[in-house]
Amino acid sequence: MKAFYVNDFVLPLPPDHRFPMSKYSGVYERVKEAGIADLCVPTAATDVQILRCHSEHYLRRVENGHLTDAEIRRIGFPWSTLMVERCKRSSGATIAAGYAALTDGVAVNLAGGTHHACSDHGEGFCVFNDAAITARELQTCAGIERVLIVDCDVHQGNGTAQITHNDPTIFTFSIHGEKNFPHRKFPSDLDIGLSDGTSDDDYLMYLEEGLRRAIFLSNPDFAVYISGADPFIGDKLGKLHLTKEGLAKRDRLVMTMLREANLPVAVAMGGGYAPNITDIVDIHFQTVLIASQFAQT
Fold first, then answer.
1. Is 177 helix (H, G, I), strand (E, B) or coil?
2. What count of other Cβ atoms lies within 10 Å of the Cβ of residue 166?
3. Could you read off the pLDDT of 180-212 as tens digits, one per residue?
4. Measured on CA atoms in the order 16, 18, 21, 23, is the torsion positive or negative?
5. Would you say 187 and 113 are in contact if contact means Cβ atoms under 8 Å apart?
6. Fewer beta carbons below 10 Å: N end or C end of the chain?
């Protein structure tokens, strides 16, 4: 299996910033040490690829540093040329995982899952929407007709839903905390909003029912899976109560059902905000480990 490492550019974040950038290098080191995947450095997504999902006006303003202070606050971290490069490479990594999955069955981006990025703005630590960009790249250049995006990040995938609104070839399924960010949710093709405190058994029941319905309704040729470490009980932005064991069961359930549907799968990591970075790395690593077990040998 191939895993695509996004270069860990150092962003000028304040010490108390909520986004734990060091999780990326931690996951990379764990995957490298375990030897469970071929690690590759991705190229950046091109303008052509990004513009299938984002407006040119937005892309140019991001590239040239012309976002307003309010727009930068909405994204959640400061603008820099390194930030732009990293965000383009993060989308490029999910694209690369998509192409690799056509051969390997499964491939992983060790970052990505930037599902709050909308066609004309970013928010919630998301600048470009890698899942939507990958879906349209594979449809345009790899003969894929219908894509299912399975979003298990604890926050609803409003940007993905907005970008693909009224596109019958891309089906968005989001299972998330109903009372969590974003407070104004753009409806997915299928949303399952969970109550605060939902734990392993109930979560897995709702996920299985929703995923079975999403596969039936979308009849997909390909899947993008945004896993997310933030449904974890210890996550400071999550509000759900899944254990690490429950999250491993989640990953196995998703991968098993997608494999039974004969779908190649590109996996992206999504969010994770536990105070202990090791917890986030553990959860993301077990996603990669489980995904590797479903790759073609």
1. strand
2. 4
3. 999 999 999 999 999 999 999 999 999 999 999
4. positive
5. no
6. C
